[in-house]
Design brief:
By secondary structure, this protein is α+β, with helices and mostly antiparallel strands. The chain has 9 helices and 8 strands. Helix 3 packs across helix 6.
């Protein structure tokens, strides 16, 4: 089955990739923007930003960029947050504290330890009244998030914000999740027919495992490092860097092929 959809806006947050302009610079082969940082969240107060876990700060930066590019208030689209491991720093803290000094467990950090913490913060910070969902598919979480959003687009009228993210593990968790750099990408997706769309694409579900075109080395390294960054070839297609098709293959067999639809 083929599904046509529009991309209304996109955003990114990672070391050296603080925003969409930095991604365009990297796609042009001019390297990463190491001297620039992502803008602090406009949805969280300074106090909330200090207390927010790492995964929230990472995901908010990209999500707010995508909504701004789409010309939408953050509360307008329904949202899907997809992550393989959630906030790994909190997971490490929880495990260490429970093993060594359980009486000292922080109620705030315990509250932030759930997998849907980032989506919950978004629901509150954005003032979202629509559905905000958290999904996970281990190392295939980018693919799972895209499938969820495509399903929403096919059955609903409302734009959908996709946020794909994964942080860096610390301590013993690194054996399970040996990632060196955090990464988050966000896109606002909608049914076709938007005059202000950044890009119009077609998705096909299959089991094709053909590799995508190589991206510049710094971006290719991120794809190898962090499973969330496997969405980068699709971001390159949205940016017009490649003409497609782009295949995102899951480790569990399923794949999605994206291309510009033939008029």
């Amino acid at each position: 089955m083929n599904i046509d959809f529009d991309i209304l806006g996109a955003g990114i947050c990672a070391p050296g990739l603080p925003d969409w302009e930095a991604l365009l610079t990297a796609l042009a082969g001019r390297g990463l923007s190491e001297d620039r940082k992502a803008q602090p969240s406009a949805l969280l107060s300074p106090r909330e930003r200090r207390r927010a876990p790492a995964a929230v700060k990472l995901s908010f930066a990209a999500a707010e960029q995508a909504c701004a590019m789409a010309g939408l208030e953050p509360a307008e689209p329904v949202a899907v947050f997809s992550s393989g491991m959630g906030d790994l720093q909190i997971t490490d803290y929880m495990c260490r504290t429970l093993a060594e000094q359980p009486d000292l467990l922080s109620p705030t950090r315990f509250h932030n330890s759930v997998h849907n913490a980032a989506s919950g913060y978004w629901s509150i910070g954005a003032g979202a009244t629509g559905d905000v969902t958290a999904v996970s598919g281990w190392r295939d979480s980018a693919l799972v998030g895209l499938l969820e959003c495509l399903s929403r687009i096919h059955h609903e009228q409302q734009p959908v914000l996709l946020v794909v993210y994964d942080d860096v593990a610390c301590g013993p968790m690194r054996d399970l999740w040996p990632t060196e750099q955090p990464f988050c990408a966000a896109m606002v997706m909608a049914r076709p027919g938007n005059s202000a769309a950044v890009s119009r694409l077609q998705a096909t579900v299959g089991r094709d495992r053909d590799p995508h075109d190589e991206l510049p080395e710094p971006l290719q390294a991120r794809i190898v490092d962090n499973p969330a960054a496997r969405i980068l070839p699709l971001m390159a297609l949205v940016a017009g860097h490649t003409s497609g098709p782009v295949t995102l293959a899951g480790e569990q067999g399923l794949s999605l092929e994206f291309q510009v639809p033939i008029p």
